[in-house]
Design brief:
Low-confidence stretches: none
Structural class: alpha/beta
Number of helices: 9
Radius of gyration: 18 Å
Order of helices and strands: HEHEHEEHHEHEHEEHH
Helix content: 40-55%
Number of strands: 8
Strand content: 15-25%
């Protein structure tokens, strides 16, 4: 179980799968369609995979070992849990918010990193749609939803073209590598 916990803590979203598992494939596809980039560990291709599969089986009250999804190092569920969460009204709300305009930032008014990310986009001649969720009655659940879809921290959560880019770390990494400007180019204003 120690290796499972170690691998699960290496990235914001981690999925343990088997290459022959159709539900595993469905969960990976769901994450990719949501714009997340989870780390995927295929147990049948890992020398310690059999031991990890045995550790996962039943460890979290699940009746199956894979797929096992971890967000922020915490187990969040199996295929059934993820699919039922994805179809919830709350997830629909998050996805609607994230696709309203080309660049959407989900923030909290008290978050200085949220403010910094907004300023970065404005300096890059992009006028993002900003949703301050601390005024939303579903604030806590929205934060949980953002963590479940792969944000390393709940806010800021940046979406470009309806796809999750990530939080501050991911946005700054893209900017420093020169990959952010080409990504947001369609949303830049000439008159800004």
């Amino acid at each position: 179980m120690e290796r499972v916990r170690d691998l699960a803590s290496k990235k914001a979203a981690v999925i343990f799968t088997k290459s022959s598992c159709c539900m595993c494939h469905s969960i990976k596809t769901l994450f990719y369609e949501l714009g997340a980039s989870p780390a995927v560990h295929e147990l049948d291709k890992d020398p310690q995979g059999r031991d990890m599969e045995q550790a996962l089986f039943g460890a979290f009250g699940s009746t199956q070992a894979v797929p096992a999804v971890f967000i922020g190092g915490r187990y969040v569920g199996s295929a059934k849990d993820i699919i039922s969460f994805h179809t919830s009204d709350l997830m629909d709300k998050v996805m609607r918010m994230s696709s309203e305009r080309g660049v959407v930032i989900i923030t909290k008014s008290s978050c200085c990193l949220c403010y910094a990310v907004q300023i970065l986009f404005r300096d890059l001649r992009v006028q993002p749609t900003v949703h301050e969720i601390d005024t939303d009655p579903d604030c806590r659940e929205i934060e949980k939803a953002l963590l479940r879809i792969g944000c390393s921290t709940a806010v800021p959560a940046v979406f470009v073209g309806g796809k999750l880019v990530g939080s501050t770390n991911e946005v700054m990494s893209l900017h420093l590598s020169g990959s952010l400007v080409p990504l947001i180019k369609p949303y830049q204003s000439l008159l800004y």
